[in-house]
């Protein structure tokens, strides 16, 4: 039935009878959709998906013409040559031949292009050596050393970074954006989901076309599970289904040269991904909780050049005490510790003057200590002279006594099981 309706739709379409072609296309799409739901053979499923997307696009184009008061059925067949009608450009628009509707979609996607480098270097990413190596192979080498990729050797085209929340998946993507000499598109579900029927898949199509036009380029999709959950779920919307179908088609790259377009995606819930989408990612890398050495490095990176008196042994001890902490947990911990000297300064009752004329909180028995509060010093116009003390090991002890890791053992088990079945260690 789907084949019969689609054949009739194409026939009416070629004859320019758009008002007749549109309902036939919609009927065919309904049959294709049902077939997709129950078809088990992946090759047949893929072929149906391609046809579904092709007819869906065409139906939307015809509907746009009919909505704009297009000619409708043409009796003399003159419209047969116009197999891809477009909306007429408004005055002053589309002078260069670009469809104004497409120009509007692209303008919306322009905000997704990262124009300023995030300034996160490879060395700032603690651990994850094999993940960094794989990304360098895919991102840096093809641009700097194109001669490496000859014959059958091709760079990786799609990476999925998965793991518990806060392990540095998005941070790794920022490092890629900094280090890669490529156009970087950072996409979230809100960039691609539209309330208008048929616009979401056009946004996906335009995104990939923009990436091809400005290659070499990287498309980073954060929280991809929000766009590409399992098909056939009860809460799946029609728009969500169409976005997934379009994404599958674009990632397949049929009829396009996508050698210089890399898709990088991140998710905390890899099991929630649609199987067909998951298969499109030729590299699926597990980003685990940081190991001891990585945690030690993270404490140093997050402290940066803030004055402190911690030794190397102190950093090692902190790393041992934070087993099970994610990178995000350590970041929150250090952020809290950074405020401890400020809290001490606010609560201080005694201050001492340093050789360079600054006022630092101190104990009552310290030589040269003056009994005065921060508020009193500020009232005397000395606010700019007050300096918090350096961070100490005790500050970390105080914060760690009240902080707990946010990733549960059951979360880790799920990710480790997924890695055994589908992924690889990062």
UniProtKB/TrEMBL annotation:
Residues 3-72 form the MIT domain. Keywords: ATP-binding, Membrane, Nucleotide-binding. It comes from the Eukaryota. Pfam families: AAA, AAA_lid_3, MIT, Vps4_C. Residues 66-102 are annotated as: Disordered. Its main location: membrane. Residues 155-291 form the AAA+ ATPase domain. The keyword Glycosyltransferase does not apply. It is found in: Membrane. SMART domains: AAA, MIT. The keyword Nucleotide-binding applies. Belongs to the AAA ATPase family. This is Vesicle-fusing ATPase. It comes from Citrullus colocynthis. The lineage of its organism: Eukaryota, Viridiplantae, Streptophyta, Embryophyta, Tracheophyta.
């Amino acid at each position: 039935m789907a084949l019969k309706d689609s054949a009739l739709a194409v026939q009416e379409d070629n004859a320019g009878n758009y008002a007749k072609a549109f309902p036939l296309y919609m009927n065919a799409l309904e049959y294709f959709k049902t077939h997709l739901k129950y078809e088990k053979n992946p090759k047949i499923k893929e072929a149906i998906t391609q046809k579904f997307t092709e007819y869906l696009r065409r139906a939307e184009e015809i509907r746009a013409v009919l909505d704009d008061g297009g000619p409708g059925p043409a009796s003399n067949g003159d419209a047969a040559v116009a197999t891809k009608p477009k909306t007429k450009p408004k005055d002053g628009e589309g002078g260069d031949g670009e469809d104004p509707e497409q120009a509007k979609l692209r303008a919306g996607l322009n905000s997704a292009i990262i124009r300023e480098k995030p300034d996160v270097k490879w060395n700032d990413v603690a651990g994850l050596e094999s993940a960094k190596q794989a990304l360098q192979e895919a991102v840096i080498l093809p641009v700097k050393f194109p001669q490496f990729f000859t014959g059958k050797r091709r760079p990786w085209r799609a990476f999925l970074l998965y793991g518990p929340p806060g392990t540095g998946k998005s941070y790794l993507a920022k490092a890629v954006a900094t280090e890669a000499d490529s156009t970087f598109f950072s996409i979230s579900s809100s960039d691609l989901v539209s309330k208008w029927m048929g616009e979401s898949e056009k946004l996906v199509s335009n995104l990939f076309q923009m990436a091809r036009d400005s290659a070499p380029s990287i498309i980073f999709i954060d929280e991809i599970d929000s766009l590409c959950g399992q098909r056939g779920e009860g809460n799946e919307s029609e728009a969500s289904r169409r976005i997934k179908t379009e994404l599958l088609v674009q990632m397949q790259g049929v009829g396009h040269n996508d050698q210089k377009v890399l898709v990088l995606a991140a998710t905390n819930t890899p099991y929630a991904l649609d199987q067909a989408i998951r298969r499109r990612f030729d590299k699926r890398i597990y980003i685990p909780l940081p190991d001891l050495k990585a945690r030690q490095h993270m404490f140093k990176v997050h402290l940066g050049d803030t004055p402190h008196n911690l030794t190397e042994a102190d950093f090692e001890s902190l790393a041992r005490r934070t087993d099970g902490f994610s990178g995000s947990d350590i970041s929150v911990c250090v952020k809290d510790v950074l405020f401890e000297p400020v809290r001490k300064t606010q609560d201080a009752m005694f201050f001492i003057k340093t050789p360079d004329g600054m006022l630092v909180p101190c104990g009552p028995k310290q030589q040269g200590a003056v009994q005065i509060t921060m508020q009193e010093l500020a009232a005397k116009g000395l606010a700019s002279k007050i300096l918090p003390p350096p961070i100490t090991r005790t500050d970390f002890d105080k914060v760690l006594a009240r902080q707990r890791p946010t990733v549960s053992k059951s979360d880790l088990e799920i990710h480790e099981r997924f890695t055994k079945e589908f992924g690889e260690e990062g």
